[in-house]
Amino acid sequence: MSDKQKKPQKLKARLPRGFVDRTATDIHATNEMVAKIREVYERYGFDPIETPLFEYTDALGKFLPDSDRPNEGVFSLQDDDEQWMSARYDLTAPLARHVAENFNEIQLPYRTYRAGYVFRNEKPGPGRFRQFMQFDADTVGAPGVNADAEMCMMMADTLEALGIKRGDYVIRVNNRKVLDGVMEAIGLGGDENSGRRLNVLRAIDKLDKFGPEGVKLLLGAGRKDESGDFTKGAGLDEEQIAKVLFFVGIKNYAESAAELAELVAGTSKGAEGVEELNIIGALVTSAGYDATRIKIDPSVVRGLEYYTGPVYEAELTFDVTNEKGEKVVFGSVGGGGRYDGLVSRFMGQPVPATGFSIGVSRLMTALKNLGKLGQDEVLAPVLVTVMDGDVEAMGRYQRFTQALRNEGIRAEMYQGNWKKFGNQLKYADRRGSPIAIIQGGDEREQGVVQIKDLIEGKRLSGEIADNTEWREARVAQVMVPEAELVAKVKEILEQQAEDRRRAKAG
């Protein structure tokens, strides 16, 4: 066979690795959730803002273009003027750029929220995607820790607005300055010790996983796991380890605050950090948020490299079953803190800022686990069937469809091959349509329509296995004058909704 006669190769449809196509159910659930979060943010006086998906790479901070293609962790491309641009990695760096660029027009404190997709050029894995949604709120230009306390209260209110009960969540609060003070107190201050400090942070971060004994090993010489693999430790001595473990092991902050202040006394910022935690504790308590909802917890270290003061994390405390079938605490669904250095990078002057970010997909998984999403399920459309293909009949079917839509009822007129009526009912079944509207020639002459309650029909069919069989039994069908079509459809839909409510309650 000559080259000319070879069939052209069909293009293979491939979803890019680490990305997902989202279904109607997922999108409706996300919209429902985002609307509830937005309502809380608006109530606190925050306004929306949107920044583009792309920024110049140097604006994203740590991802400076230090190689031919700055793709470490970010997706980058070169503009036609040879400037590197990257898809945004988070929603905070773009906000910092926006504030710096519009500083003279912006009213401080600047209180905004934004929801949007962020992109990570990382190896995808189970539950790890390269594109996911975050929902952030930030206050820029407020130096006092009351702004941080308010963020914690807003996080608590947001989780409750989504249906997460008290006792099922806690907002945990720590302070970067206190941790730095502890590091300084054990002799790990200064730039020359940054590597060792990072090792200590990593060890502390394993507290939930390995417990105090495991962390003690990681702070010292190292730890061997069950498989025999050895992780080198941070190399601290007994006294240093005791101080770190005391700090991260504080369970009741009020009882240990004085001892903690003593530990960090004389360090550059430690005492200031303890004082800030005390103020946050007092403010949230005065506003009615006790320690079961917002808790000062020195074991929070996630992302501390980035922050300059208070840090906070929203954790869900109920158990779920993981992929291995083990019961585990669901864990973090969002967090944030004070990042006074981020806007300053552009400004050459200090600009205080604090904010938090919710991981929308992760929180959605939690809400599904709790049965809190999809309560307002979206009803499939009422189907107006087509019995006759002439223009006059089609016009009449279209008029029925529009009359339903004009009353706020989801409706569609069948658009496929109308000649096989059975296919139309099969389509309605697959769509999950609640009602089918039918008008043949006889009905048209009488000025009436048949309304078929497909949900009730299914129920009445009982033991009949074959869909076609029970539909032919003409169960759950009423005939009404054309003028009463909309009112009757409404009545049936309300009855169906009532049945669903009863079924849920029962």
* CATH fold name of the largest domain: BirA Bifunctional Protein, domain 2
* CATH hierarchy class name of the largest domain: Alpha Beta
Structural class computed from helices and strand pairing: alpha+beta
**Beta-strand proportion:** 15-25%
Shape: elongated
Q: Can you list the strand order of the major beta sheet?
A: 1-5-6-13-12-11-7-10
pLDDT < 50 stretches: 63-67
Helix content: 40-55%
Count of strand segments:
18
Question: What kind of sheet is the major sheet?
Answer: 8 strands, mixed
Q: How many domains make up the coordinates?
A: 2
Which second-level CATH architecture of the largest domain applies?
A: 2-Layer Sandwich
- The CATH superfamily of the largest domain is Bira Bifunctional Protein, Domain 2
Radius of gyration, in Å, reads: 30 Å
Distance between the termini: 69 Å
Q: Can you count the helices?
A: 17
If you average the pLDDT, what whole number results? 88
Protein name: Histidine--tRNA ligase
GO biological process, one term: histidyl-tRNA aminoacylation
Binding site for L-histidine: 90-92, 120, 134, 138, 302, 306-307
GO molecular function: ATP binding; histidine-tRNA ligase activity
